[in-house]
Design a protein that fits this description.
mainly alpha; TIM Barrel; 2 domains; 6 helices; 2 strands; 61% helix
């Protein structure tokens, strides 16, 4: 789940070989324009972007669809009756190319990096807020 407004977060997930990124506009405090930038970064790095919208307001869902996020498209298809369920949409839209067997050594390495990430995030989260404020002030 991506609740950071930094494109580098999407790039890190892509380099870590994630298949998708969930861009959370419900719990994160960034704009749909920022979400669109994150979607573009996901496309650039060949991972599937999914946007979690704040509620089921059709205008917000359409705005998420306009960013090019695939997950929003699947949910909208279910919401307007094109598909009977998310599972049916998934079977219709998602095509399996190959199966990836879990790599336990890679998982162990990921756990180590994830622990470091969590420590850094906790130490730097307030700094990210300050950076956002300074950036917003410079845009005025």
């Amino acid at each position: 789940m991506c609740s950071s407004s930094y494109v580098k977060t999407v790039e890190i997930l892509a380099h870590a070989r994630f298949d998708f990124v969930i861009i959370d506009t419900e719990h994160a405090s960034f704009s749909m324009e920022t979400a669109e930038t994150l979607v573009r970064a996901a496309h650039l790095h060949d991972i599937c972007p999914v946007i979690r919208v704040t509620d089921n307001d059709p205008s917000k869902i359409m705005r998420a669809l306009d960013t090019g996020a695939y997950g929003a498209a699947i949910l909208a298809g279910v919401g307007i009756g094109i598909f009977s369920s998310i599972q049916a949409a998934g079977k219709n839209i998602v095509k399996e190319i190959h199966t990836i067997i879990p790599d336990h050594d890679r998982h162990r390495k990921y756990e180590g990096y994830y622990s470091i990430f969590n420590n850094l995030y906790n130490l730097l989260s307030q700094q990210f807020v300050l950076i956002d404020r300074v950036t917003e002030m410079n845009m005025i």
